[in-house]
Every structure is written in structure tokens, then in C-alpha cells.
Amino acid sequence: MIRFEQVSVTYDDAAAPALQGVDLTVPEGELCLLVGPSGVGKSTLLGTVSGLVPHFTGGTLHGRVTVAGRDTRAHRPRELADVVGTVGQDPLAHFVTDTVEDELAYGMESLGLAPDVMRRRVEETLDLLGLATLRDRPIATLSGGQQQRVAIGSVLTTHPEVLVLDEPTSALDPGAAEEVLAVLQRLVHDLGTTVLLAEHRLERVVQYADQVILLPAPGAAPVVGDPAEIMAVSPVHPPVVALGRLAGWSPLPLSVRDARRKAGPLRERLAQLDAPDAPAAPEGTAVTGAEPASVTGLGVRHGRVVALRDVELSVRAGETVALMGRNGAGKSTLLRTLVGMHKPTSGSVRVGGVVPQSTAPAELLRHVGLVPQEPRDLLYADTVAAECEAADGDAAAAPGTCRALVSELLPDVSDTTHPRDLSEGQRLALALAVVLTARPPLILLDEPTRGLDYAAKARLVEILRALAAEGHAIVLATHDVELAAELAHRVVVIADGEIVADGPTAEVVVSSPAFAPQVAKILAPLPWLTVPQVRTALRETP
Amino acid sequence: MSDRNRPPHAGDPTTAPVTARASALHAGAWWIWALGLATAASRTTNPLLLGLLVAVAGYVVAARRTDAPWARSYGAFLKLGLAVIVIRLVFAIVLGSPIPGTHILVTLPEVPLPAWAKGVRIGGRVTAEGLVFALYDGLKLATLLVCVGAANALANPARLLKSLPAALYEAGVAIVVAMTFAPNLVADVQRLRAARRLRGRPDRGLKALLQVGLPVLEGALERSVALAAAMDARGYGRSAEVPRAVRHTTTALTLGGLLGVCAGTYGLLADQGAGYGLAVLVAGLAAALAGLWLGGRRSVRTRYRPDRWGTRAWLVSGSGAAVAALTIWASSYAPQALHPPAVPLTSPQLPLWPAASILLGLLPAFVAPAPAGHRTPGRGSRAVAERDAPAGEAPPPRRRATATGEPGAGHPTHTPHSEETR
């Protein structure tokens, strides 16, 4: 269905090709997963299929890409629109119209299909994606998962033979992600659609893939093969694979179900050992004075919508708390209220003893720092050095404080780099360094692992652990159950603006199937949550 | 939900149906109605009549707007109208007014100006007559704005596109996309100003606004480029092969027609040539329209469920047209009542028949489809709650050592098999 023949792509201002030596075929009706660390050219490879690379992005494409027999060199993206459906990383950037039904019809209108055909396909697609009750809704009022489904639906109505998706589940909560993947699964099985998707959160998708394309390093030729074979050598892999490699299982299991079948001996062996030390939250922090954060009876409203209701939360120094819950549950609102961006309608918020919304920003900086969902929002300057100088000025810190932090977090970033040219993970680290310059006792992170590969995530975990050990309190809002399991002492689950669970990580995440990490599912009822815990336990008693 | 899906005339045919795609009023009908009210407003300076027009428009908006995002713009137009009145009054006070008046309210210190600025005055006497005249004038402008705002709130601007000639469609999409640029820009500015707080810088004031300018523009540009890529990949701008002769004819007709329109307009405005001016203008218009129609053949687009122009659309647009026509007629039979003089000061009277004709504009509040119940936008909808509940709901923490010992038990919802059988 899709054929790459000796494809390489070089962007105009780049010294080295972004993609090189791609020579592979994606057969019809397969779900093909594209994996690799950040910055290896996954998006570029996806772009060549829809023709956006090079027709839209510029650059030079050598070799040949054929989709359903059409050469992308001779066909512009709009001329491939009837065979390739593309959904980018941000569904909001994809929408042309403003209601669900019009959006589903837009592609068909462009192709000039007959009105009765359009009507029938819209109805079919509404049913296929479970969107029938939302048909008249303005797109702006939908949740993240619903928007992602509308974006997929809008390219499905033209009945494309190939569907290309760039990180379709990265921004979604576990439930919404399963919804989207179920739809893809159904398309592949029932309609024979060929799906090519790139994703960082492999734990969510790898078990559905028929074939995996691994781009191991920038400019390196891709490795193609059976998912289990590729995962055995891949530098990026989900926890289930890491556990399988650790235990030496062969063939490597890719799903929790397969892993559980093989995990009998491992469970028996682990049952003999001491349970892993739960990352103990520090006790008795009255020495430092006021608590980093204490929230009582908090209510916040956006217009008529109640975003938070009667929230009680206190965070001690040195403690790491993960806020979880579906898209739009109120996690970000809670974080923003802690830095005074929202005014509470009831209850009180104290951050290090001060009321955030009535404290001058320069003073508040010493009590709390927030790294927002889009770290770019924090960065204004056009070089890393200028950004660091500005941060020192803002925080009234000794010159060089921020730069020292950046060097610690990002050893190989030069002073003159533009923040926009950093990778997603590097930008996050820079924003974190900017926030840390004022040494706030409370650090808040909103969805920090969005767009990060496993290596960047591991680095982030190390950094945050070190900060917690120094006595910083950390609150992170995240959909990433693996991150929460690895890092958090405590998990707080928010649903519809209320706290519905608050307790030690091991208890909260394991009691909910949606929030349980893979290792916990495989080893249940044993209390191990993460691969590093298992590795340590096995190493201590060989 | 079942109510909303009922065919519009299932029950009593005289009650208005609930707004749904099938029964939605043609966007053009709302615009004709609103422009009718605006025309009426432009024909009078009587504050009572203008107030009545604003009330009529406001009542219809309150009764018939949906809770879609574009429907919320009405408040912004109201504020804009108030601002216009205030600005008009301030100008009348500061720059004086050409209206001769005898009731002096206050005398401001006058700024002496050089001789070459003879016609201009800053400060000086402020008369009641001048203020009243300015108020009537400002009120007229504000009413016009409120009428346009009503149309904006009641009809989705994007839906109007569906009624454009095919040749203009792509230009129309560009305009609509450009129109969404502004609200997005405002949202970006708010987000980035809030983010300044996180850097310990003040988030209010002009300086804060200026410093986020560059990042906001960068973000807006990036979003535009992403949208353009998405549109291209979805077939925007696909065109059919058209014979060369047709293409050339289209170009000739459109260009020639536009030239004709220019020449004709010039002829009409110039001292001589009013005779041939009209003829050239009409011929030019005809040629340009023919060019547009021919150009439409290049477009392969079809239209999905275009709005239908039904009885209710006739009624709504008819009521607006009637208000306009009756007010224009009234300005010939009762010019005094429609333009109460500012000199001498008199309290304006409410003329009976013009007022009654304006009340005709209330008709849409009864015949246009009613908005579907008060659904809260966003996650409040039942559909969302049902769909997301199983995944997002966290049961109260329970001990891990259950009988089955499987915390993950009972969630194979994402395995392929259960999906196939769904």
C-alpha cells in the first residue's frame, strides 16, 4: 500500500538529512507503528506519505514514495487527499469548520462527492466513532478525546485507504486513549484500512501493531519487523518489554495478558522477597515552617462551569504528589489556582503561608513555581543565555544561577541556541531551570511528559527525585501512569472537580485499572509497581 | 435528546421547532432580518425608536440564540455600542459642537489655537443641545452595531459560506479562517500574560501586553501554517480540469466586468456621462457575474446539507424587510417624529405607527427555531459523562489483596476482541 524506495529527506537549512535510506513497504490492511527517540524524523517520515513533505514543508526528497500506486512527487497533498487521511499531533490545528457534522463533511466536500453519499457516510462515521450525540456540538466545546475522535472521523469520511496519525494518544487520559485505539483497531479489522502511526507512549499501542518500524537514531536507516523482534532491540520500549527483557522471556510479550501468562515463575520468586520500599514520604516537616501548599474547601468556577469543588489538599516538603484524572477534570485548574491565576470562589489556598492570588508575582516566585503544559509559554528570549539572564533578574538571584542549573539539566546546550530550536524535552528542562532559579519550595508541573521519549522521561524522573530529596515539594498533573508510579509518593485522583481518591501511590493506582502501571498489572497481587523496583529486588538476591 | 431529533413539524405545526441541523434557519435570513433593523435605525435619530430597536434585537437574541461560542459575541457588540456613545459624547464635549445652543451646562477652559487651525476648537462652552445631538447620533451608530451583533450571535458566520457562489468559496474560507484568527490571538495573549506571572513579572499593564506580543504572533503564525497544511492534506483547493477556452472566457468576463463596473461608477459620479454610466455599470456587473458562474465550473466542491430557505426563513427575513420598508416610508410621512430636533430642546415623542412597525421585528422570536434546551457546553453533556465515566472514575481505594488478586481484572475493554463484537 505504501512503498518507500531509497527515500531520504534533507531540509533546506539542515546540514545532514533528516531521514535516510528508507526502503520499506507497508502492506495493505496493517497497523504499522513507527517508533524511535525524539528527533529521529518520525514526523518527517509520516509527512512523506501524505505528500506534505516536501510539497508543503520544503526540502529535498530523494528516492520515491508511492501510496496506492500514486507517486508523491507527482501528486500534491490535495491530490492525495482521497487515498491518505492525515491527523497531526494537535487536533485543534486540524479543524477547518466549527461543528462536528460540518467537520466530518469537509473533506468530502473538497473531493466533490454527491450530497446523498456525503450524508450516508457522515451518519456511518458518527456511529463508528460514537459521535452521534455530539453531531451539532461546536468543536471548541469538546473534550480532548472527543476532539481526537472527530479529527480521525473527519479524515475517515473520504474512505482513505491509508490513515497516517502522529501521536494520536499522547495528550489523552488513559480512558480516552483506549477509546481512540479501539477505533483504529476496528478500522484495521473491519474496513481493511492501512494505518501508519507514530507514538511515544508505546505501552498503549505496541500490542496492537502488526509491524513496527524503528528509527534508531537520526539519519540511521530504519529497522522493520515483527513487534516482538524489534522491541527486543529497540532503545525505546514500554515497561512490559523492559520487564520481559529483565526476566529473559522469549518470545517477548507485548501485552499485559501475554506477560501475565509468562510471569508465574517470576511472581513466585518475587513473592519470596521483601516488598519494595514504597518511596516513603518524609515525615515531620514542621521545622521548615509553613507547609509548601495547603488547600481547604477550595471551589473555583469558570463562568457558570464549576471547575473545582470542595478540594482539600496539603503537600509537605520533600513530598511528590501526582494529580490524575481524565481530560478536563480540573487538574490544571488546581495547579493554576496554586499560583494565583484563578481566584477561588470559596475556601482558601495557602502556598508557603501566603495567599497566591494577592501576592505580587515577584514575591510569589519564592514560594511556588509552575512549569505550564506548554513550556514555551515561559520562554520569551531568543537565546538560552538571554533567557537565563532574564531569569536571574526576575528571581533576584546571583548572576549565573540559572545558567548553572541549565548546564546541570542540559549538559550539551550552547548559549546561543534559540529556545524554539530545542527539542520538547530540552525545552521542558529549560523552563524547569528558569522556574528553579528562585528556589521555590513548591514546584508544580502540568503534564510534563507530553511529547517526551523514554530517555527524556528517565532524565526528568532523576531530576525530580533529586529535587524532592533536597526538600522541594513537587506536584505534577499527569496522564502518565508509569511516571506517577515511578515518582509519586502520593496520588490524588480528581474527577469532575472533586477529589475522589487520595493516598499512597501503591494503593491508589493499583486499585484502579485505568491508572495501574503495567508492571503492577503483570505482577499483581504483588506490590511491585515499576521495572527498576523489580530489578533492584532481583539484583539484591540473585 | 429524543426531543431534538424529532422532525420539526411532528407536533403542533404552529410552534417553532427546536434548532437542529435539519430545522436550522438559513443564516441569510438572520442577516436580512438584522440588516432590515439596521436600515430602520439609520433612518431615525429618535432615541425612543432607537431604544425600541435595540430592545427588539435584544429580545430576539435572548429568545433564539444557541449556546455556541459565536453566540456569545452579542455582549461584546453591546459593549462596543456603549463605547461608541461615550466616545461620541466625549468628542462633543472636548471639541465642541456645531449645534447652536443656549443652555450652557459648563464652560471648559479653551485651548488657544493658531490662526491656521481656525475651524477647530478645543474646550469652550458645552451646551445641552450639543450633547443631546451627539447622544442621538451616537445612539444611532450603537444601534447599527447592536443589529450586526445580533445577526452574528444568531447565525453562524461560517454557514453563510455555504450560500456563496462556488467560485468565491475558497476566498470565503480564507476570510472565515482569518476571522477566527482574532479570538485565538486574544486567547493567546491572555495565556501568555498569565504565564508572565510564573516568571515573577507583573501580569497586568501595558508593558506586559507589549512583551508578550512577539511570542503571540509567533504562535499565531505557527498555528496558521499548521492549519494550512491540514487543509491542503484534506483536499482544499482541488480543481477540475476545465477546457482552455472556458478558462480564458472566465478571465475575460471577470476582468472586463470589473473594468465595466469601475467605468460605470465613474460615469455615474462624474458630471457628464450619467446616461451611459448606468448602462456600462449594469453590463459590467452582468459580465462579472457570468465570469463568477463560469469560474464555479473549475471547483469540484459539493455542499453538505446546505441550509434550506423555508417558510420560517421567509417570515424572519420578511419581518426585517418590513421594518426597514415601513420606517423608510415613515420618514416621508412623519419626518419630524423620526428626527426630533435638538434645537430647541424638546422631549422626543414616541410616534405610534413607526413604533408599531418596529415591533414587527419581534416576529423571529416566535417563528424561528428555538435553541435546544440549556445544555452546559463542555463536559456537562450527558454524552460525555456516559462515555468517560468507566475509564476516568476512580473507585475508592481498596486493599489490593482481593479474592481474585487481580487488580487489573475486569478491564479487557481495550483488547481487540471485545472491540470487534461491540
From TrEMBL, chain A:
It is found in: Cell membrane. Its EC number is 3.6.3.-. It is a peripheral membrane protein. GO terms for molecular function: ATP binding; ATP hydrolysis activity; ATPase-coupled transmembrane transporter activity. It is an enzyme of class 3 (hydrolase). One of its GO terms (cellular component) is ATP-binding cassette (ABC) transporter complex. Keywords: ATP-binding, Cell membrane, Hydrolase, Membrane, Nucleotide-binding, Repeat, Translocase, Transport. CDD domains: ABC_cobalt_CbiO_domain1. Residues 2-243, 293-521 form the ABC transporter domain. Its main location: membrane. SUPFAM superfamilies: P-loop containing nucleoside triphosphate hydrolases (SSF52540). SMART domains: AAA. Belongs to the ABC transporter superfamily. Probably part of an ABC transporter complex. Responsible for energy coupling to the transport system. This is Energy-coupling factor transport system ATP-binding protein. It comes from Streptomyces netropsis. The lineage of its organism: Bacteria, Bacillati, Actinomycetota, Actinomycetes, Kitasatosporales.
UniProtKB/TrEMBL annotation, chain B:
It holds the Pfam family CbiQ. It comes from the Bacteria. CDD domains: EcfT. InterPro entries: ABC/ECF_trnsptr_transmembrane. Its main location: membrane. One of its GO terms (cellular component) is plasma membrane. Residues 373-422 are annotated as: Disordered. The keyword Transmembrane applies. Keywords: Membrane, Transmembrane, Transmembrane helix. It is found in: Membrane. The chain crosses the membrane at residues 48-64, 76-95, 167-187, 252-269, 275-294, 314-332, 352-372. It is a multi-pass membrane protein. This is Energy-coupling factor transport system permease protein.
